[in-house]
Amino acid sequence: MKSLRTRAMVYGLIILLGLLSALPNLLPATIADRLPPWYMDTTLSLGLDLQGGSHILLEADTRELIRNEHKAMAETLTRSLRDAGIHYSRPLLTEEEVQVPVRKPAELVEAAEIARELARETPDGVPHFEVSKVGGELVLTLTDTRRDALISDAVERSLEVVRRRLDETGLVDPGITRQGRDGILVQMPGVADPREIRELLGTTAKMTFHWAARSSADAMEATIFLPDAHSGEEFRLERRVAMEGKHIRDARMGFNPDSGEPVVNFKLDKDGAALFGAMTRENIGRPLAVVLDDRVITAPVIRSVIAGGNGEISGSFTTTEAGNLALLLRAGALPAPLHVMEERTVGPDLGSDAIAMGLTTGLVGAVMVIAFMLAIYGRWGLIACLGLGVNVGLLFGILSILGATLTLPGIAGIILTIGMAVDANILINERIREECRRGKPAWMALREGFGKAYTTILDSNVTTLIAVSLLFLFGSGPVRGFAVTIGVGLITSMFTAIAVTRLIMEWQIRGREREPLVIGGLAFLDRIGGGRLDFLRGRFVGLAASAILSLAAILLFIQPGLKYGVDFTGGTLVEVQADKLTVEALRATLHEHDMGDASIQESGDTGRFLVRLPAEAGEPGATAAQVDALKSAVNSAQADARFPQVDMVGPKVSGGFADATILAILLAGLGMLAYLWLRFESHFALAATLTIALDLTKTIGFFALTGVEFNLTAVAALLALIGYSMNDKVVVFDRIRENLRLTPDKPILQVMNESISSTLTRTVFTSVTTFLALLPMGIAGGAAVASFALPMLFGIVVGTSSSVFIAAPILHWLGHRRTQKGLPQLRPTAEEMRKELEMMP
User: May I ask the CATH class of domain 207-333?
Assistant: First the structure.
């Protein structure tokens, strides 16, 4: 028993550390304030869907950067060609390349060499442009390396500018992270209306100073026409920048002492002060235009030298406008415009309701699972429940150490984990019961049961982890949180089932190791399993029925199709709370504001509506304006109307979600196929994959038939179902493989029937526990989790039945084909290969 005590100490230490890591989430503020900060930092943070707030996905518009790079290269090249005496025509600049026509064909080769030398004149010696000759033109194209470097640098600099701007606003704990190649995700807890923040972040704030053009005699190419920011009047200015806004060191809102109007007082750095003094000294009596994002804010006439490095910008500002302009100048200009591609807002009331719903449904589901385990296995079920409690504690502890964010899908993941974590315990208990029925003493039954269950548990969890990892790679935001929760939960459940539960069981039989062990169960299932029912007798009927249902699901997918959420269609979905409006009044109001294409749906209580607008085509970020326009329209009809939830997804983002979803599902199938091919034989892997495809089509048909919204949460459900259903198939196939090795001379049909019978109890019990864990969420979870809970409940039933009636018939058919080809059903083990080698002469 020394080994038992040693393991108890090691496992106890691991569990203690995990529970201590989870403890800060439960401590009241009075106690938390007395503990060291490094300990209290290991806590879960609530996602915006639970605490309320907004998140905005910004995309850097790098087209201007590329154009500037092309322009600079064109100017440098034409200057070099002119110095070399090579005749050329005016360059043509596009978003993809620079085209420079060379007038004399004989000079084209020399011109190309000059262009290549300029392209190589970089700090790192790596060419920035590829040079080619097309007809009589030089064509210069940015290299992929240079293009990626420009975009990456612009996004990194934009991150810093966005961070400074949000810090200036005093926003509490904003989350600012880079997402993808050119995206910036901004999360703002507690911000229910992000309109001002959105405008602040979307303003480039590129400030420049330009002198007014002296006369019409100036060369037209040296001048530009820019509109006044207020009146729209056009100013004719020198194209050359007299001074850039980067020299502004500080800017504050103030008031003009004479007029009392709000102004912006700025201070220049040392170089800027010297430059500003010199340029004003030489241009007294000349208008100097202050230009912000290609709009003239003001154009005062310089009356005297401004040599102190201080200046004032006036322009008929309001107090808010002057304050925002000062903030933008302090934070600096963005290197590229940022467009809002996705916006989601959850009101604080909706967040608190989500927490209450998640806790209630989770607790009810856990109680139902515990009650079921106690009713089936008695004290051995109590051991499984203790392991389940430890598993949940470790799950929260690891998530806290990782600094994870708990979201509503994350809560759903924890509830699903509770159901799936019992799977390993049921598998172990059933294996031990089998050994006990063979008359083995307690210690041997435990050893054999855990040993035989280990491989199955490993295979089934790895297949689920494949689906979850793809969900993490291709998901975003809360969906990733769901994937992390499931992944960590699978790892902790393996530890508690294989290590902790075994330790407690060995402690229970201490002193009675050679006595028989009795673990309860359901008598009628035992009789079915012992009776060796012929499950494959109706295999042809089962396969035909499954194929017909899948075909019907495909037809439903085509017509009427799925009810896609804005995640996939793009557009704006706003929950409106206006108790003084009817559907007709709201529709009329939106029609008056040119929103006649809006669809309106009453939601729950009187005065609650879901308003959906299609995505706006055109410039990037065009859909973002829909949110403000919709709110303004509703407020014009009822000033105190509220908007508890806003989802806005641009067409580019929604298209990316669709592509990522298809790719994730395909890769999940291929990944599982490859793993099972490696662990089993090819026909086992192919049978499991084909069965999963049939399960998946039926679940898609469920979405189409019931009208449950298909969104990113639904994708999480599909991938979770793929993993869960594959888990079931692996258990059955593992038993078939085991029995084929034990009795290779038996007909394969008989082996399959016996294998299905012996695993039937585990299959039913696991499905029941997972179903019970999710049932409260499916019933009372509401629309927020309907796209996850309802298809999961449906998928559990479909996946369980297909494990018994579909997967094995497909495997039998594929196995029969292998037999006809003279191939064995299983590859030889290392022990069998060794024996064959020993028997060879």
Answer: alpha beta
